[in-house]
């Protein structure tokens, strides 16, 4: 067997592959275990050859796969990501893999024990087992299963072990190992029929349906409740009918249960999930299922864009504007843009759906890069909710709740309808301050202000994730006058329980949904209408269908109006309209109350008139005049260190190196 030099990508922060000597042929896309310094690492073979002699190379210790784990198309996509996002190729590839594969686990399918009728099976076994009831019980189970029964299906296995042994010794039954079959999410009931599309839905559906065999990026801009999901479902059915699979990306884990339930009612194919809230084993199973040639629907958050789906027929990005599709830590990428690149490479259509598309997507549609399709009416015929501005300058408040909002809550409860109070700030209070000396609780790791969480009696840093027990006295003056300042969702929940003791409030945010199953339980209460008072962050703002919800109160509307962030106003507009869209989705009349100290702000006046397009056009003109994206590109150089002086020195040195940039590049900071 001849030797071969292979180039291996390793999960290390170095922008290169590493050469190793293989004693035999190894295919590109295969995992290998190699020595790296004093460690052993798992890597992916990306190529062959080296400028070094074979004598200078260390050997591959183990070939982990007999066939390539990643196809040439997936490797090409990941290589493009590493180049475009300037990431080390090894780290980029391993970001796309589930943990079991990253750590070198076998991809051979799991096995299970199956008992079958053996060579000495009698003609009338039950007659011979009148005095052996446990053996007779096993035989009855086996006969009911047509002579083949998985051991895990045997009732009261612990009681039957002796009976199994006796039947095996008589060669009545035999034991074999077979590939374990994962249970797909396929409903037992007949699939529900498609809904009748209105004229706008039908136009969008037919436009995309006639282009299923080629790449095109469609921007489906539909108001909340306009029936975008039904368009998705009918397109997916067409793709499945052609023997292909579909990939649906959603921004939040919280949307997956609702999406899976609706999709599983429609399709007689496996519905597979892929997101960070799943166990490592479940993610591995979904990843392996993606490599099978059978049609399926895959639903997941941003990391699902890297699933190695065979015969992919369409990609759908729901709520395409959402910032959750952008990976902000580790290997950075934008799942929406990666999905567009993947669809282009595989020559399939991609649909970007949103009631509030991003400025970049609308800009691309205006310039012909995307095809714009609009759904301007709610499918139920219900008018959009009425948006009212509450001028906090002229109102007294109980903590953060104004009198008009409290009055609206009481009226809504009296009608037996649901209300949602939205505040995109979890915890009890964002600041803890000493009223004696003015000391404030800051994070020791990153210097951000610590948020007080009354439920856990902790201070948590929402910037870097550090956690510490809350102090009872001020560390500066030893006073016990520490006071939580400001309001988070936890405090709003407490206030509502005090005002409406007979109507328990349900809070849905990252803190209340930490335990496995908690999110599903809380959403069930919300969907059923059992919970009349809902408090939530953006987890509850996106895509949820709450038929009994008629009132939405947005408590801190001004939060994003004056931020230095370029996209703050855009994100504020999108979030407000998405939250507002939860109200009045069926027969109930919807009402949205925005609490603000700036009722004359142009953005709020546009949103009051439900005129997102006007806001977008005004913002695009502002950015054109200021030469800001999408009319230019911005690059942020961010540094982190355990000492502020190191950060400042690095940034200043970096600026000094770029003292003479090209004429069309401007430098700002540090």
Radius of gyration, in Å, reads 29 Å
Distance between the termini: 58 Å
Shape: globular
CATH class term of the largest domain: Alpha Beta
Structural class, by secondary structure, is alpha/beta
Q: Can you name the CATH architecture of the largest domain? A: 3-Layer(aba) Sandwich
What value does the average pLDDT take?
89
Stated plainly, the CATH topology of the largest domain is called: Rossmann fold
Overall tally of structural domains: 6
User: How many DSSP E strands?
Assistant: 30
Helix content: 25-40%
Oligomer: single chain
As a percent range, the share of strand residues is 15-25%
CATH superfamily of the largest domain: P-loop containing nucleotide triphosphate hydrolases
Number of helices, counting only DSSP H or I runs of 4 residues or more: 19
* Order of the strands making up the biggest sheet: 11-12-10-13-16-9-17
Which sheet architecture does the biggest sheet show?
Answer: 7 strands, parallel
Poorly predicted regions are: none
């Amino acid at each position: 067997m001849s030797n071969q030099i292979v180039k291996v990508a390793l999960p290390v922060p170095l922008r290169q592959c590493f050469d190793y000597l293989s004693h035999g042929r190894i295919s590109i896309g295969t995992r290998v275990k190699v020595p790296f310094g004093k460690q052993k690492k798992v890597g992916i073979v990306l190529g062959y050859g080296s400028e070094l002699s074979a004598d200078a190379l260390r050997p591959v210790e183990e070939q982990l796969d007999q066939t390539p784990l990643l196809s040439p198309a997936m490797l090409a996509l990941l290589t493009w990501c590493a180049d475009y996002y300037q990431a080390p190729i090894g780290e980029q590839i391993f970001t796309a893999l589930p943990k079991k594969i990253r750590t070198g686990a076998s991809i051979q399918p799991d096995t299970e024990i199956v008992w079958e009728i053996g060579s000495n099976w009698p003609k009338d076994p039950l007659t011979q087992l009148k005095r052996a009831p446990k053996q007779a019980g096993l035989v009855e189970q086996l006969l009911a299963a047509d002579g083949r029964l998985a051991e895990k299906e045997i009732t009261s296995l612990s009681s039957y072990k002796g009976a199994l042994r006796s039947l095996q010794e008589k060669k009545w039954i035999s034991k074999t190992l077979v590939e374990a079959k994962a249970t797909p999410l396929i409903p037992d009931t007949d699939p529900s029929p498609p809904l009748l599309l209105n004229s706008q839905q039908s136009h969008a559906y037919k436009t995309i349906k006639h282009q299923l065999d080629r790449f095109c990026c469609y921007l489906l801009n539909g108001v909340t409740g306009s029936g975008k999901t039904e368009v998705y479902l009918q397109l997916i059915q067409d793709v499945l009918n052609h023997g292909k699979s579909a990939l649906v990306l959603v921004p939040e884990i919280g949307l997956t249960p609702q999406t899976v339930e609706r999709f599983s009612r429609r399709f007689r194919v496996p519905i597979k999930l892929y997101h960070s809230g799943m166990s490592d084993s479940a993610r591995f199973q979904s990843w392996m299922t993606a490599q099978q040639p059978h049609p399926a629907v895959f639903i997941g958050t941003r990391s699902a864009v890297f699933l190695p789906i065979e015969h992919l027929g369409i990609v759908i990005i729901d709520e395409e504007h959402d910032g959750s599709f952008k990976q902000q830590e580790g290997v950075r990428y934008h799942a929406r843009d990666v999905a567009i690149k993947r669809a282009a490479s595989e020559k399939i259509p991609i649909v970007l759906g949103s009631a509030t598309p991003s400025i970049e997507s609308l800009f691309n549609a205006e310039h012909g890069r995307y095809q714009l399709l609009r759904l301007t009416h709610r499918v139920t015929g219900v008018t959009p909710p009425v948006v009212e501005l509450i001028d906090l300058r002229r109102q007294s408040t109980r903590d953060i709740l104004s009198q008009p909002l409290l009055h609206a809550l009481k009226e809504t409860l009296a009608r037996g309808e649901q209300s949602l109070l939205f505040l995109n700030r979890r915890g009890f209070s964002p600041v803890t301050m000493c009223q004696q000396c003015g000391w404030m609780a800051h994070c020791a790791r990153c210097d951000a202000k610590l948020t007080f969480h009354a439920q856990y009696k902790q201070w948590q840093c929402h910037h870097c994730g550090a956690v510490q027990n809350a102090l009872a006295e001020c560390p500066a003056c030893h006073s016990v006058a520490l006071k939580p300042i400001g309001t988070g969702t936890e405090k709003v929940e407490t206030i509502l329980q005090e005002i409406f003791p007979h109507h328990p409030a349900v809070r849905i945010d990252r803190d209340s949904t930490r335990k496995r199953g908690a999110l599903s339980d809380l959403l069930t209460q919300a969907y059923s209408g059992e919970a009349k008072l809902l408090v939530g962050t953006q987890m509850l703002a996106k895509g949820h269908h709450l038929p009994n919800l008629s009132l939405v109160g947005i408590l801190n509307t001004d939060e994003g109006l004056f931020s230095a962030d370029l996209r703050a106003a855009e994100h504020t507009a999108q979030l407000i309209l998405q939250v507002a869209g939860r109200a009045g989705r069926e027969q109930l009349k919807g009402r949205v109350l925005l609490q603000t100290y700036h009722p004359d702000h142009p953005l709020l006046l546009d949103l009051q008139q439900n005129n997102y397009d006007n806001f977008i056009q005004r913002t695009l003109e502002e950015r054109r005049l200021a030469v800001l994206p999408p009319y230019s590109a911005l690059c942020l150089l961010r540094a982190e260190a355990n000492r502020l002086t190191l950060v400042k020195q690095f940034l200043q040195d970096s600026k000094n190196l770029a003292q003479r940039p090209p004429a069309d590049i401007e430098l700002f900071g540090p």
